[in-house]
């Protein structure tokens, strides 16, 4: 049965209006909106909970409905930044809703599950949807999640190849063990800060090199292109 999206998501909760209600904006030197997308069950909610609270819930009981968000304050190079992280439901029936939110996102973390072939196959469809609905200069990072599991089907090389083809950054993560989770969010936040600084100050200074940053900091070597420019 078709759901009525309007009743689930009142206009008062549309993202840009929601952000503009923030009275404490001055407390932060930057506020970024990051969205988690990907098929249902790939671990988006668990990844967010791991980053926010550093815990792993079995999560079986949490079926994200539509869209939800959590704020996390991070300090990067003495800058206090608010990351507003939006967690979407990947189910087909909610896609028409999440489209509206793409426009406000400065970064997208696109997840697949390394033990689930179809979630990997669907990455192309997600990327074309991103190209259609998100801002052109949105920062995109592809994440192969659940690398802690023994029954992986998708190799790291396959993930790297796909990311390279679409010129997006790539990492492998585990919401369960926490591997690379903090790094993925922090790398994206750093790329956004660098982008913002380059735009506002028209600086000639050194650009943040995301590739190098991830290579240096990741718990396993990963390939990544420079999205910080
Ligand atoms: N082993 C393992 N399981 C995970 C990981 N991330 C999520 N899960 C499990 O995958 C299932 C779906 O996770 P969830 O975050 O709800 O996926 P979502 O639909 O993308 O939000 C849950 O049963 C989680 O416990 C991970 O990194 N490793
Ligand atoms: Mg979820």
UniProtKB/TrEMBL annotation:
<keyword id="KW-0547">Nucleotide-binding</keyword>
<keyword id="KW-0813">Transport</keyword>
<dbReference type="GO" id="GO:0003925">
    <property type="term" value="F:G protein activity"/>
</dbReference>
<dbReference type="InterPro" id="IPR027417">
    <property type="entry name" value="P-loop_NTPase"/>
</dbReference>
<dbReference type="GO" id="GO:0005525">
    <property type="term" value="F:GTP binding"/>
</dbReference>
<protein>
    <recommendedName>
        <fullName>small monomeric GTPase</fullName>
        <ecNumber>3.6.5.2</ecNumber>
    </recommendedName>
</protein>
<dbReference type="GO" id="GO:0015031">
    <property type="term" value="P:protein transport"/>
</dbReference>
<dbReference type="Pfam" id="PF00071">
    <property type="entry name" value="Ras"/>
</dbReference>
<dbReference type="InterPro" id="IPR001806">
    <property type="entry name" value="Small_GTPase"/>
</dbReference>
<keyword id="KW-0653">Protein transport</keyword>
<keyword id="KW-0342">GTP-binding</keyword>
<keyword id="KW-0378">Hydrolase</keyword>
<comment type="similarity">
    <text>Belongs to the small GTPase superfamily. Rab family.</text>
</comment>
<dbReference type="InterPro" id="IPR005225">
    <property type="entry name" value="Small_GTP-bd"/>
</dbReference>
<dbReference type="InterPro" id="IPR050227">
    <property type="entry name" value="Rab"/>
</dbReference>
<keyword id="KW-0460">Magnesium</keyword>
<keyword id="KW-0479">Metal-binding</keyword>
<keyword id="KW-0449">Lipoprotein</keyword>
<keyword id="KW-0636">Prenylation</keyword>
<dbReference type="GO" id="GO:0046872">
    <property type="term" value="F:metal ion binding"/>
</dbReference>
